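New to this. Please check this record:
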Amino acid sequence: MFPEYGPTALPPPSIPPAIYDELLSYLRKSGCPLTPTEAINNAIKLWIGQQQANLVSERGYQWKQLFLPNATRVRMNFDGQWHFACIEDDELMYQGRAMSPHQMVLQIAGNGRNAWRELWLRFPGQRDWSNADRLRTQLSKRTASAPKSPEEAMSAAAKAMSDALSTALTLVEHANHQSQNQLERRLPRYRRTEDMMEDVD
C-alpha cells in the first residue's frame, strides 16, 4: 500500500473499489511516485480545468449564421495592407473598440464593401484563413441537407429504410422469377422428346 501524506481537510471521495484497485495497480506498474490521494487530486484538477476550458470555448461572437469562438482572428486587406481584429469576451474588437463586422469594414474601407466577402477568419487552433462568405455558404449547404427536427430525422430514416426494403424485395422477386423460369424449363412439357427417351444399353 502506498503511504499517504498527512490528514486531509475533507474525506476522500467515494471511489468504486475496482477503480481504486486499478489506480493502485497502475501506480505500481508505472513506478509513479504519486500516492493514490495525489493521483486522485490531480485527476480532479485536470477535470475541473477541462470543464472550465469547455465553458471558455462556448463563448464567442454570433455573426448571423456563423459562430466565431473567442480568440478567432479576423482580417481584411485594403490598399495592400492587412487590418486585423480578434474576438475577445464575446465581442469583435478592432483597434481597441467593440464593433460589428460591417462596422469594421466601414471603418477600414468606407461604404460599398460587403463584410462577408471582405473578411477572412482563422479559428482557434487552425493555421489557415477562410473567407467568411465561403464559410457561410458551406454552413448553409450543411444546414439545408440536415433534418430540421427529430421528427424529420425519423421520417428521413424511415424513408431510407423503406427504399432499402423496396429494393431488397425487388431483388428477391427477380431472383424468384429467375428460379421459377429455370424450374419450368425442366418440367416434362418443356423438354424435348429425345431428352425424355430412356437410355438404351
Remarks:
- The longest helix spans residues 150-186.
